[in-house]
Every structure is written in C-alpha cells, then in structure tokens.
UniProtKB/TrEMBL annotation:
An MF annotation (GO) of this entry: electron transfer activity
Name of the molecule in the record: Cytochrome c domain-containing protein
UniProt keyword Heme, yes or no: yes
Presence of keyword Plastid: no
Pfam families found in the cross-reference section: Cytochrom_C
Domain named Cytochrome c: residues: 362-465, 480-575
Protein source organism: Blastopirellula sediminis
Keyword terms of this UniProt record: Heme, Iron, Metal-binding, Oxidoreductase, Signal
PANTHER family: BLL6722 PROTEIN (PTHR30600:SF10), CYTOCHROME C PEROXIDASE-RELATED (PTHR30600)
InterPro entries: Cyt_c-like_dom, Cyt_c-like_dom_sf, Cytochrome_c_Peroxidase/MauG, N2O_reductase_N, WD40/YVTN_repeat-like_dom_sf
Amino acid sequence: MPGLPLITLLLASAVIGAESLDLKRADLRHPQRLAMSSGGDRLLTANRNSGSVSLIDLEKRETVGEFRVGQSVTSLTSLPNDHYLLTDPVAHEVIEIALVDDQVSVVSRCAVPPYPQRTAASEDGQTIYVTSLWPKQVTRLEKAADQWRETKRITLPFAPRELLLLPQRDTLIVADGFGGNLAALASGDLSVQAINQFPAHNIQRLHPADDGNSVALAHQMLSELAYTNDNDIHWGLVMTNDIRWLMVDALVKQDSNLYEGNRMHSIGEPGVGSGDPTGIAIASNDDYAVAMGATNQVAIGKDHAYGIWRVKVGARPTDVIFSADEQLVYAADSLDDTISIVDVKKRERVGVISLGPVRERTPAEHGERIFYRGLSLEGWMSCHSCHTDGHANGLANDNLSDESYGAPKRILSLLGQRDTAPYGWLGKKATFQEQIHKSIVETMRGEDITDEQADHLAAFLETLTVPPPIDELQGTRDDAQVAAGKALFTELSCVQCHAPPTYTTPETYDVGIHDKKGNEEFNPPSLLGVGHRGPYFHDRSGVTLEEVVGKQKHQLPRDLSAEEQAALIAFLRSL
C-alpha cells in the first residue's frame, strides 16, 4: 500500500447533506462521545454503530433529530460556531459537521491515516490533530479557503488514542491506546519533546487542569506482583481504577518522574471496585465526573477533597459532560442507547433520555455487553480491562491459567483468535467457552456465567479481527523483502510451530523459555497481527521483533545476516 503523501486529502467547500433518520426506527446506536452546543441547550452524541449524530433538546429532555454522517463515528470535538469534528475509523476519515436550527449537515470529509480515533483543535478551529491507532500516527491538518490540508504526520513507537492540545504550552499530549506511554509533541511541527512510560493502561479522556499546569486522566493499573485471588482483588492489589493529575512540566521532559507533583483519586475501594473508567469531565469549581464502564456508574467527586459518590446509570457509560450551569452531568450509556442525567448535588440519576428504539441484538452483540461488564469480584474489572477492546495492554498477570501462582504471564491479544485453539499459554482449553468459564471463575474470581452467555461471549470474540499489517498501514511495505522473509520462514522451520494460515499449531513446545514454576512447554501464540503486539513471549522478555530475531535468535538453527534478519522481520510484520 503506498504511503499517503502530504497533499490535500479532500477538498470540499460545498455543504454535503447528512441523512436525516427516522427517530422511531429500531437500531443500535452506541453513543461514544458527547458535545454541547454553544448555547448549552443542545447535546450531540457520536454514535459508533449507526454512524450517526443524535441531537438532544436538553430543556425538553428528548431526542429531536438523528443524522447519519458516516459509517461509524467515535469521537466528537467542538469547533467555533457550532461546528464539530468527528472521526470515522471505518471510512478512515475526519468529518466536519455544522449544527444550524436543529439540523446537522456535513461540511467536509477528509481522508486521514487509517483507524482515526480522537481529534484536538486549536481555539480558532483552523488547525486540528488526529490520532490513528493501528498505524501509530498523529496527523496535523490545517484549513485554508474552507479546505483541510495535511501539513505534518509523525509515527510514534506506540498506538495512540487520546490526545490533548495545550495551546499555552504549544504542546500536544498523546496517550497510548493500550499501555502507559505518554508523549509530548510540539504542536507546530509535531517534533517529539518526550515519551515517558507510566505504569498505567486504558488511559482515557485527557483533560486540562490547574490552569493548564497539569493534565487529568482516567486510567487503570494492573500489578503482576499480586495474585488473582479473592484477597488481592478485594483490596485493590490486582487492578485499580483511578483519576490522576500529572504535571505538564514532567510530561514534557524525557525520562522524568511522572509521580513528582502528581495526585490521584482511587475510584474503587474494598467491596466496590468500580471498574473501567471510560471518560472524565471537570467543572470550573473542581467537581469531576468519571464514567465507570464496567459497573454502569458515574463517579462524582471534587479535586483536592476526599470522597467519591457512585451513581448508577445505564449500560457501559463511555463519556460524561457537565451541563452549562454545571449542576448536571450527562452520561452516554453506550450499550443502552440512552443518556443518563445525574444531579451533581443530589448525587442521583434524575432522568433518562432515549436515543430511539433498540432493535433485537445478535448473539455476538449480547456477548459484547458481557465483555464490557464488570464480571470480576466486586466489579474491579471486565474482560476489557486487560484485553483493551479485544487487544491487550502489554502487561503480565499472575493467575491460575497455568494452574499456579508465582509465574505471571503476558496477557494475550484476543484479535484474530477465532481458529487458533487451544487457548491459554499452556494450551489446555479447547474452546473459547472453556477458557471463558475458567477466566471468570479463577482469574476474575466472579460468579460464573451461564453456558448460553458463554456462547454469546464466544460469538463476540469470534468477530474480533486483526488489523491490516503495520507496514501496509504505514506505507513502508517492501514486497521483495517480505517475499525473502517468507522463504526464510519456511527454510528455518518456523512453520513447524507457526504453520499458516493461522500461524500457530495446537501442540505445546519446549522452546527454552521456562517459567518460574517449572512449566517448560507452551502453546505458540498465532503470529497474525504480531507487528501490532509487543513485548513478546510469556515473560515479556522480547521487547521488539528486532530483539526476538537479532538478539534472542528465537529457535533459529543458524545465525542470520543483517539482511536476512531484516527480511524475516519484514515478513512477520506483513502477517
């Protein structure tokens, strides 16, 4: 796939009409992000499943319009004059819309690097920044004569999702979509000021705080030192769910101590885990609201004060936003297609707004609801907590998947695992359903689900596919080098354990990497999508593919030249 050049990607000065939808139509919308109109009397939602924007009259507390603008929209950023920016990770574009007299129209569509996730905009709305997850890229677009033009793009060493523009510092903060990397980029030329690793994952919704001197974020922390038993889960030793304020001065300095000057509010406590923070909003008086996706709650608290109050809302809230007078919080109940209204002072849900009738769900869609639910003891975590959106957070966990404690192992990605049985590092579970029951009961220490629910969750997992190869997405694939690497892969007998088309085999093998409990044989993970993963091996000992091939020489029968190493890595990255 050729690289995308730094040219105007789409020129669209004329208004392109959005499709107005029947509000009585049964559908699954799945609102992901919220934005307020400039007058504060309308709420807009970006709906992932239906590719639409819903418009809500906040005084009447009812949906007054729905407009299909894309194939899937997953973010919503306010621009001046009731214009808004959305990302469509299916069509791989950024969409600018306008709201006028309760009508939404599409102003322009701009192709960007694949799988765009979030956007940030300058105060005048003339410069925007876009994160693209799987290509690991950040793009800057500038508007001239009502046309968006890409002016800069960089590739990061991690897959970016959330971002925040700090105009007073000319800095863009970008967060890892899976792990704990936080990058500080110069907003002008996107040069890297710093990339720091923080012991966190599932970083969500960066928010400016303390007059721009700090950045607030919601995240989770997983400890590989804790055992996944009742005691360690109950006391929050395995997984914590937090809101944290990090100093900008630390974020923009390489190899800095991000703990210096930071502060943190833990949302969970023994007995009430409150898993999966998915969104955060901060009011001018330091009230804050955090959406807790796994436990269907909104947490209300105040910075520099003790105490958090949890309010029950709809299924998997993914975003929160304060009303114009900051007396109410609106939560996007993603899997219920509703908006919950929470009174900040009363700390209770005082209303629900439906986005429209909900159609009957498929087994896989029922499974999606289970995947994101807090199935663990006391709701500390969901499947998503470790397998972010079906992928993995790159961390290790000490659980009974190997029938013992004391040998934590890397969390496996679930993308593309449909036909790669058996499951688990030891390859002891023949089906998704067997692995699901074991994980819920022995790893999450929750109440087991029914066989029908396990079938639904398995159906959802079977829909999870690997993204296109990393070099195709970045436009750097060398076909000749890939072909040479493929030939080497066969010559070196890599196919013995990693046989195409799944690039795994159902057996277990001793490859010389034994764990601390004496396990010697492991089932080889599929190599499909391996270019998007890392670190590697059950003990995370291989940081990069270059290290696996060049330094560790994993199961290689002979030394490889530099050219051969590069070819083999190119082939692996092509899977």
